Amino acid sequence: MRVAIAGAGAVGRSIAGELLENGHEVLLIDKAPSAISVERVPLAEWLLADACEITSLDEAALQRCNVVIAATGDDKVNLVVSLLAKTEYGVPRVVARVNNPKNEWLFNEAWGVDVAVSTPRLMSALVEEAVSVGDLVRLLRFSQGDANLVELTLPPESALAGTRVGDVDWPEDTSLVTIIRGNRVLTPNREDALEVGDELLFVAAPAREEQLEDLLSVRRESAAD
């Protein structure tokens, strides 16, 4: 897979290193000469250019990329890069970094963004995930399809503890994608029984999140009382 990353700062270089280790081709693009540090990611391709310029993206052969990651520290730049990648070059997958949570609403399909990653929101979510049991935590927003990756740790009081996955009447527009149980990562099937302490990851429509939380959490019993 060929991946172009706009922004060769610490975030862009870190992403590049991970992708290279996984066997992908990576091109790092940055307009600041000081950011071009070939020795830090020697296996990547490097391009000194403005990723907001069509001529630069032509030089980068963006049409050959499977994924473009807009990872600069400027939300305006990330939006422009995302829009150009999607509309001018037809890149199948565009991932954009959100620096200011106030701008998160802009990072959607209209701007060519398939997945928006808000670093402040993600850090906050990870803190919540670490201390919350029975509360739904939003980890990631997918712009295409209007869906979120959400997590809930099944509390001891949940009425669904011991229930098989296939017997649960899940809300519409939700999908249980992973069960993390201790050190194991399980791909759920209909016969798997939910256990207290399971970390459940769902892809769900925002409108279904409250319904999903009520189904799984302590509040389900509280509502019934």
TrEMBL record:
Gene3D superfamilies xrefs: NAD(P)-binding Rossmann-like Domain (3.40.50.720), Regulator of K+ conductance, C-terminal domain (3.30.70.1450)
MF GO annotations: potassium ion transmembrane transporter activity
RCK N-terminal domain sequence ranges: 1-117
Residues of the RCK C-terminal domain: 137-218
Listed GO CC annotations: plasma membrane
Key words, A-Z: Ion transport, NAD, Potassium, Potassium transport, Transport
Cited Pfam families: TrkA_C, TrkA_N
InterPro entries the record matches: K_uptake_TrkA, NAD(P)-bd_dom_sf, RCK_C, RCK_C_sf, RCK_N, Trk_Ktr_HKT_K-transport
Protein name (Swiss-Prot/TrEMBL): Trk system potassium uptake protein TrkA
Species annotation: Streptomyces luteoverticillatus
